[in-house]
Protein backbone atom coordinates (compact mmCIF):
# COMPACT_ATOMS: atom_id res chain seq x y z
CA UNK A 1 0.00 0.00 0.00
CA UNK A 2 1.71 3.12 -1.25
CA UNK A 3 -0.07 6.45 -0.88
CA UNK A 4 1.98 9.64 -1.25
CA UNK A 5 -0.91 11.70 0.16
CA UNK A 6 -0.67 10.11 3.60
CA UNK A 7 1.40 11.81 6.29
CA UNK A 8 1.39 8.82 8.64
CA UNK A 9 0.55 5.13 8.80
CA UNK A 10 -0.65 3.13 11.80
CA UNK A 11 1.01 -0.31 11.73
CA UNK A 12 -0.84 -3.01 13.69
CA UNK A 13 0.61 -6.57 13.87
CA UNK A 14 -2.02 -9.24 14.41
CA UNK A 15 -2.24 -12.99 14.99
CA UNK A 16 -5.32 -14.96 16.02
CA UNK A 17 -6.95 -12.21 18.07
CA UNK A 18 -9.78 -10.86 15.86
CA UNK A 19 -12.05 -9.80 18.74
CA UNK A 20 -9.45 -7.48 20.23
CA UNK A 21 -8.36 -6.27 16.80
CA UNK A 22 -11.99 -5.39 16.06
CA UNK A 23 -12.16 -3.49 19.37
CA UNK A 24 -8.92 -1.67 18.57
CA UNK A 25 -10.13 -0.57 15.13
CA UNK A 26 -13.55 0.42 16.47
CA UNK A 27 -11.79 2.83 18.81
CA UNK A 28 -9.22 4.04 16.28
CA UNK A 29 -11.13 4.56 13.07
CA UNK A 30 -13.95 7.01 13.94
CA UNK A 31 -11.51 9.86 14.68
CA UNK A 32 -8.76 8.87 12.23
CA UNK A 33 -7.48 11.93 10.34
CA UNK A 34 -7.67 11.69 6.54
CA UNK A 35 -3.90 12.03 6.32
CA UNK A 36 -3.35 8.79 8.29
CA UNK A 37 -3.41 5.31 6.74
CA UNK A 38 -3.88 2.04 8.65
CA UNK A 39 -2.13 -1.24 7.87
CA UNK A 40 -3.00 -4.46 9.70
CA UNK A 41 -0.22 -7.00 9.19
CA UNK A 42 -1.48 -10.52 9.75
CA UNK A 43 1.20 -12.88 11.02
CA UNK A 44 -0.18 -16.27 10.04
CA UNK A 45 -3.58 -16.33 11.71
CA UNK A 46 -5.60 -19.51 11.37
CA UNK A 47 -8.81 -17.60 10.61
CA UNK A 48 -9.57 -15.09 7.88
CA UNK A 49 -10.00 -11.52 9.11
CA UNK A 50 -10.78 -9.98 5.71
CA UNK A 51 -14.56 -9.92 6.33
CA UNK A 52 -14.11 -8.17 9.67
CA UNK A 53 -11.74 -5.61 8.17
CA UNK A 54 -14.24 -4.86 5.42
CA UNK A 55 -16.27 -3.01 8.05
CA UNK A 56 -13.43 -0.50 8.30
CA UNK A 57 -12.96 1.17 4.90
CA UNK A 58 -9.44 2.36 4.34
CA UNK A 59 -7.76 -0.35 6.44
CA UNK A 60 -5.26 -2.33 4.36
CA UNK A 61 -4.51 -5.98 5.11
CA UNK A 62 -0.90 -7.09 4.68
CA UNK A 63 0.63 -10.50 5.36
CA UNK A 64 3.92 -11.59 6.92
CA UNK A 65 4.64 -15.35 6.91
CA UNK A 66 7.65 -15.19 9.24
CA UNK A 67 6.49 -15.58 12.84
CA UNK A 68 6.86 -12.76 15.32
CA UNK A 69 5.47 -9.27 15.81
CA UNK A 70 8.89 -7.83 14.94
CA UNK A 71 8.67 -9.33 11.46
CA UNK A 72 5.07 -8.14 11.08
CA UNK A 73 6.02 -4.57 12.00
CA UNK A 74 8.94 -4.67 9.57
CA UNK A 75 6.56 -5.81 6.82
CA UNK A 76 4.26 -2.92 7.61
CA UNK A 77 7.13 -0.48 7.23
CA UNK A 78 8.38 -1.99 3.97
CA UNK A 79 5.00 -2.02 2.26
CA UNK A 80 4.03 1.55 3.15
CA UNK A 81 5.63 4.89 2.38
CA UNK A 82 4.19 7.46 4.82
CA UNK A 83 6.97 9.49 6.47
CA UNK A 84 5.53 9.06 9.99
CA UNK A 85 5.17 5.60 11.59
CA UNK A 86 2.62 5.01 14.35
CA UNK A 87 3.00 1.61 16.02
CA UNK A 88 -0.01 0.14 17.82
CA UNK A 89 -0.79 -3.42 18.95
CA UNK A 90 -3.96 -5.31 18.03
CA UNK A 91 -4.89 -5.99 21.67
CA UNK A 92 -4.49 -2.34 22.68
CA UNK A 93 -7.34 0.13 23.03
CA UNK A 94 -6.28 3.58 21.79
CA UNK A 95 -7.84 6.60 23.44
CA UNK A 96 -10.17 8.77 21.40
CA UNK A 97 -8.17 10.88 18.95
CA UNK A 98 -5.04 8.78 19.55
CA UNK A 99 -3.86 9.17 15.94
CA UNK A 100 -4.55 12.90 15.98
CA UNK A 101 -2.60 13.21 19.23
CA UNK A 102 0.26 11.24 17.68
CA UNK A 103 0.44 13.72 14.81
CA UNK A 104 0.47 16.60 17.29
CA UNK A 105 3.26 15.25 19.52
CA UNK A 106 5.40 13.62 16.83
CA UNK A 107 7.81 16.55 16.68
CA UNK A 108 8.63 16.35 20.40
CA UNK A 109 11.21 13.62 19.82
CA UNK A 110 12.67 11.21 17.29
CA UNK A 111 10.81 8.47 19.15
CA UNK A 112 7.69 9.41 21.10
CA UNK A 113 5.73 7.20 23.45
CA UNK A 114 3.05 7.75 26.08
CA UNK A 115 0.98 6.11 28.77
CA UNK A 116 -0.11 2.49 28.57
CA UNK A 117 -2.69 1.79 31.25
CA UNK A 118 -4.18 -1.54 32.28
CA UNK A 119 -7.86 -2.36 32.06
CA UNK A 120 -9.69 -5.57 32.95
CA UNK A 121 -11.92 -7.55 30.63
CA UNK A 122 -13.84 -9.21 33.46
CA UNK A 123 -16.08 -7.82 36.17
CA UNK A 124 -15.97 -8.41 39.93
CA UNK A 125 -13.08 -9.43 42.15
CA UNK A 126 -9.81 -9.45 40.25
CA UNK A 127 -7.56 -12.50 40.13
CA UNK A 128 -3.98 -12.42 41.36
CA UNK A 129 -2.77 -12.10 37.78
CA UNK A 130 -5.08 -9.16 37.09
CA UNK A 131 -4.16 -7.41 40.33
CA UNK A 132 -0.45 -7.97 39.67
CA UNK A 133 -0.77 -6.52 36.17
CA UNK A 134 -2.66 -3.49 37.47
CA UNK A 135 0.34 -2.69 39.67
CA UNK A 136 3.29 -3.83 37.57
CA UNK A 137 2.33 -4.32 33.93
CA UNK A 138 3.32 -1.02 32.33
CA UNK A 139 5.22 2.05 33.46
CA UNK A 140 6.36 3.70 30.24
CA UNK A 141 7.37 6.92 31.97
CA UNK A 142 9.92 4.98 34.03
CA UNK A 143 10.98 2.84 31.08
CA UNK A 144 11.89 6.02 29.19
CA UNK A 145 13.51 7.92 32.06
CA UNK A 146 15.44 5.07 33.65
CA UNK A 147 15.94 2.42 30.97
CA UNK A 148 15.83 4.36 27.70
CA UNK A 149 13.20 2.35 25.87
CA UNK A 150 9.48 2.12 25.19
CA UNK A 151 7.14 -0.59 23.97
CA UNK A 152 5.94 -0.75 20.40
CA UNK A 153 2.30 -0.92 21.45
CA UNK A 154 2.35 2.88 21.65
CA UNK A 155 5.26 4.34 19.72
CA UNK A 156 5.67 7.11 17.15
CA UNK A 157 8.74 7.59 14.98
CA UNK A 158 9.68 8.60 11.46
CA UNK A 159 10.60 6.49 8.49
CA UNK A 160 13.89 8.37 8.32
CA UNK A 161 14.77 7.31 11.87
CA UNK A 162 13.61 3.74 11.25
CA UNK A 163 15.77 3.42 8.14
CA UNK A 164 18.83 4.61 10.02
CA UNK A 165 18.24 2.33 13.03
CA UNK A 166 17.28 -0.69 10.93
CA UNK A 167 14.46 -3.23 11.30
CA UNK A 168 13.19 -4.82 14.49
CA UNK A 169 15.09 -7.99 15.38
CA UNK A 170 12.90 -10.98 16.12
CA UNK A 171 13.61 -13.50 18.88
CA UNK A 172 14.54 -10.97 21.56
CA UNK A 173 12.92 -8.03 23.35
CA UNK A 174 12.60 -6.31 19.99
CA UNK A 175 11.05 -3.06 21.22
CA UNK A 176 13.72 -2.53 23.87
CA UNK A 177 16.46 -3.57 21.47
CA UNK A 178 15.23 -1.19 18.76
CA UNK A 179 14.86 1.78 21.10
CA UNK A 180 18.31 1.21 22.61
CA UNK A 181 19.84 1.05 19.14
CA UNK A 182 18.03 4.27 18.24
CA UNK A 183 19.16 6.18 21.32
CA UNK A 184 22.71 4.85 20.88
CA UNK A 185 22.70 6.64 17.52
CA UNK A 186 21.73 9.86 19.25
CA UNK A 187 18.00 9.86 18.57
CA UNK A 188 15.81 11.38 21.28
CA UNK A 189 13.18 9.27 23.06
CA UNK A 190 10.37 11.32 24.64
CA UNK A 191 7.45 10.42 26.89
CA UNK A 192 4.21 12.36 26.34
CA UNK A 193 1.47 11.40 28.78
CA UNK A 194 -1.39 12.52 26.49
CA UNK A 195 -0.57 9.75 24.00
CA UNK A 196 -2.55 7.01 25.74
CA UNK A 197 -3.59 3.43 25.02
CA UNK A 198 -5.11 0.78 27.24
CA UNK A 199 -3.94 -2.83 27.44
CA UNK A 200 -6.00 -5.71 28.87
CA UNK A 201 -4.64 -7.50 31.90
CA UNK A 202 -3.78 -11.19 31.79
CA UNK A 203 -6.69 -12.85 33.50
CA UNK A 204 -5.02 -15.87 35.15
CA UNK A 205 -1.74 -17.53 36.03
CA UNK A 206 -1.35 -19.53 32.77
CA UNK A 207 -1.69 -16.35 30.69
CA UNK A 208 0.61 -14.35 32.97
CA UNK A 209 3.29 -17.03 33.19
CA UNK A 210 3.23 -17.52 29.42
CA UNK A 211 3.85 -13.79 28.97
CA UNK A 212 6.73 -13.69 31.45
CA UNK A 213 8.36 -16.88 30.20
CA UNK A 214 8.38 -15.42 26.69
CA UNK A 215 9.73 -12.11 27.99
CA UNK A 216 12.44 -13.94 29.97
CA UNK A 217 13.61 -15.78 26.86
CA UNK A 218 13.59 -12.59 24.83
CA UNK A 219 15.52 -10.77 27.56
CA UNK A 220 18.10 -13.58 27.56
CA UNK A 221 18.63 -13.21 23.81
CA UNK A 222 18.95 -9.44 24.12
CA UNK A 223 21.45 -9.91 26.97
CA UNK A 224 23.54 -12.16 24.72
CA UNK A 225 23.18 -9.90 21.69
CA UNK A 226 24.58 -7.01 23.74
CA UNK A 227 27.63 -9.08 24.67
CA UNK A 228 26.91 -9.19 28.38
CA UNK A 229 28.38 -11.98 30.50
CA UNK A 230 26.65 -15.13 31.65
CA UNK A 231 27.70 -14.30 35.21
CA UNK A 232 25.73 -11.05 35.08
CA UNK A 233 22.66 -12.97 33.93
CA UNK A 234 23.02 -15.48 36.79
CA UNK A 235 23.36 -12.68 39.35
CA UNK A 236 20.25 -11.05 37.93
CA UNK A 237 18.40 -14.36 38.28
CA UNK A 238 19.50 -14.85 41.89
CA UNK A 239 18.26 -11.35 42.72
CA UNK A 240 14.69 -12.25 41.79
CA UNK A 241 13.63 -13.39 45.31
CA UNK A 242 15.05 -10.19 46.80
CA UNK A 243 13.05 -8.13 44.31
CA UNK A 244 9.85 -9.44 45.93
CA UNK A 245 10.70 -7.53 49.11
CA UNK A 246 11.78 -4.46 47.16
CA UNK A 247 8.55 -4.25 45.16
CA UNK A 248 6.07 -5.38 47.81
CA UNK A 249 5.44 -1.77 48.98
CA UNK A 250 4.11 -0.92 45.50
CA UNK A 251 1.36 -3.47 46.05
CA UNK A 252 0.54 -2.14 49.50
CA UNK A 253 0.34 1.44 48.20
CA UNK A 254 -1.64 0.55 45.07
CA UNK A 255 -4.95 2.32 44.66
CA UNK A 256 -7.99 0.66 43.17
CA UNK A 257 -7.37 -2.74 44.77
CA UNK A 258 -9.22 -4.27 47.70
CA UNK A 259 -7.35 -5.87 50.60
CA UNK A 260 -7.97 -9.35 49.20
CA UNK A 261 -6.79 -8.26 45.75
CA UNK A 262 -3.60 -6.87 47.27
CA UNK A 263 -2.96 -10.22 48.99
CA UNK A 264 -3.49 -11.97 45.66
CA UNK A 265 -1.18 -9.53 43.91
CA UNK A 266 1.51 -10.07 46.56
CA UNK A 267 1.28 -13.85 46.18
CA UNK A 268 1.49 -13.54 42.42
CA UNK A 269 4.49 -11.20 42.72
CA UNK A 270 6.35 -13.83 44.75
CA UNK A 271 5.28 -16.64 42.42
CA UNK A 272 6.30 -14.88 39.21
CA UNK A 273 9.68 -13.72 40.54
CA UNK A 274 10.57 -17.21 41.76
CA UNK A 275 9.43 -18.67 38.45
CA UNK A 276 11.56 -16.17 36.56
CA UNK A 277 14.59 -17.17 38.61
CA UNK A 278 14.08 -20.81 37.65
CA UNK A 279 13.54 -19.95 33.97
CA UNK A 280 16.63 -17.74 33.91
CA UNK A 281 18.84 -20.44 35.47
CA UNK A 282 17.40 -23.28 33.38
CA UNK A 283 19.72 -22.74 30.40
From TrEMBL:
Annotated Gene3D superfamilies: Spore Coat Polysaccharide Biosynthesis Protein SpsA, Chain A
Keyword annotations: Glycosyltransferase, Transferase
InterPro entries, alphabetized: Glyco_trans_2-like, Nucleotide-diphossugar_trans
GO molecular function: glycosyltransferase activity
Any coiled-coil regions, as ranges: none
Residue ranges occupied by any Glycosyltransferase 2-like domain in the UniProt entry: 10-124
Family to which the UniProt record says this protein belongs: Belongs to the glycosyltransferase 2 family.
Protein name: Glycosyltransferase, GT2 family
Native organism taxonomy: Bacteria, Pseudomonadati, Pseudomonadota, Alphaproteobacteria, Rhodobacterales
Amino acid sequence: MKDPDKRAVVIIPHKDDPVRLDRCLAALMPTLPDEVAVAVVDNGSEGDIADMLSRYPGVDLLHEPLAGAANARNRGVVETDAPLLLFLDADCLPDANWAETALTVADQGDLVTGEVYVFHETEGMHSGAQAFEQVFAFDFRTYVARDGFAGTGNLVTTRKVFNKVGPFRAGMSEDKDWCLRATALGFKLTYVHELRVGHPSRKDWPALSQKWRRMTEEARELHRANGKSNAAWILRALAMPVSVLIHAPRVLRASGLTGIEKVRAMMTLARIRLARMVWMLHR
